Amino acid sequence: MIQNHVLSISYPIKLKGDLRQTMLRTLRKNMKFIIILMVAFFGISIFYGLGRYRSSGGGKRTYYIAEVNESGIASDQLQNAFLNAISRYDDTTLSSLDQSAIVSFKKNILDQLINYELFYQQAQKEKVKISNDEINLEIDKIKDNFSSPEEFDEVLKANNITLVRLKEDIKRQLMINSILEETRNQVSISDEELLEYYNENKDSFLEPEQVHARHILLETEEEANNLLQQLKEGLTDFAELAKEKSIGPSAPSGGDLGFFTRGQMVKEFEDAAFSLEPGKISGVVQTQFGYHIIKCEEKKEEYSPTFEEAKERIINILRSQRENEAITALTSKLKEEANIVINYDFDAEIESLKSSAEESQTPESTEQLTSEEETVSEEATETEEVDDTSKDN
To answer: Which residue of 13, 358, 371, 386 could cross-link 44, Cys pair, CB 3.0 to 4.6 Å?
Structure first.
């Protein structure tokens, strides 16, 4: 059962002017800690340190933005998760967001926090046990990303995190991982299902024609013709000449571009590369980047793999789909059984902000902003889903 109560509260985030820059500076200051400690080692570690907060007797009352079976999610917990989540965006992307996009983003993050809490409560119900050795192993993994124990301690102190709290949150995370892993392990796929998928999706396994090429990029046609003459006369090695003369970013690797398919290079370059036989060198090819000399190293013709050749890939595809479906089903079941109270009407605020924006902008601007909002909301949902990101553990 999910209830929504509308309360009048002011949002702590307004990405306008100096306040936006202040927020960005805060994000950059804590970036190393956020990325190393939260992303590298825990599946849903973006929610690190977001355990339940309860009011103590006589203490300051905590505002709960949501409650899950009487366990509160504090508004500052949501704020911390929000800041951690947007730390992966660059300044340009962040500055392009309007208020309704930000609120949509926060709404998605709160939904993930609710899922996180539900999984943890399920782990408690199942009496999942985590040993000290498991916790210490994760601590050691985190410490490996710092130059010294002192640096690790300094980062904890700078972020107001004690080692005890860190261990508690690691334990919490591992308990949740145990529930998710148990759910994934229930997935099974038969050979008949694998073959059926192969027959229905043969085109998706088709490997297109590819070419492995090197190139030398030069600023002038005259210089390109001079080097081409040296290559034709066999006076120098192509890779060595690329290292010495090419102005392209592949110069250090001898101009090696690896394998590529049609559509990955500009048309003039692509046509020349795919017309060459292995070991052959092109004439001078002009593109928007300058003048190229191209050497074909290898070619791979279009190829359609057999079922046996594609089987492992199909297993991975179907297992990923089924595991996601299983975790989604578990999430829905836990939500149906839970008493969830959301103490803020995000949808009403989003609509209000959109209406205000539409009144002050042209139709073209409104369309662009709406697209940006949808993109960010989709990314928040996709990249922060508890069930997907926990797989790395």
So the answer is: 386
Place of tokens 């279009």: 302
Q: Which CATH superfamily is domain 2-187+314-392 in?
A: Porin chaperone SurA, peptide-binding domain (1.10.4030.10)
Q: What are the angstrom distances between the C-alpha of 81 and each of 116, 155, 162?
A: 12, 18, 18
Measured CA distances, 338 to 2, 52, 227, 378, 386 (Å): 8, 16, 73, 25, 18
Report the alpha-carbon distance of residue 203 to residue 304 in Å, rounded. 8
If you count them, how many residues does the chain have? 393
pTM: 0.63
C-beta atoms surrounding 7 within 10 Å: 9
DSSP codes of every residue in 11-60: -S----HHHHHHHHHHHHHTHHHIIIIIITT-TTGGGTT-----PPTTSP
Domain ranges across the chain: 2-187+314-392, 207-300
Alpha helices in 159-266 (DSSP H): 163-184, 191-200, 221-232, 238-245
Cα distances from 321 to residues 291, 338, 382, in angstroms, run 46, 26, 14
- CA atoms of 172 and 117, how far apart (whole Å): 10
Which residue carries 């970013």 as its tokens? 249
Q: Under the phi-then-psi rule, with left for phi > 0, alpha for psi from -120 to 50, and beta for the rest, what region is 357? A: alpha
Sheet holding 340-342, edge to edge: 2-4, 340-342, 64-68, 71-74
79-124 pLDDT, tens digit each: 888 888 888 888 888 788 888 888 888 999 999 999 999 999 999 9
The DSSP element (H or E) to which 294 belongs, if any, is strand 290-300
Which CATH topology does 207-300 take?
Chitinase A; domain 3 (3.10.50)
306: left (phi over 0), alpha (psi -120 to 50) or beta: beta
β 340-342/2-4 pair status:
parallel
Structure-block tokens of residue 70: 């009487």
* Predicted pLDDT at 144: 93
- What would the mean pLDDT of 139-161 be, rounded to a whole number? 91
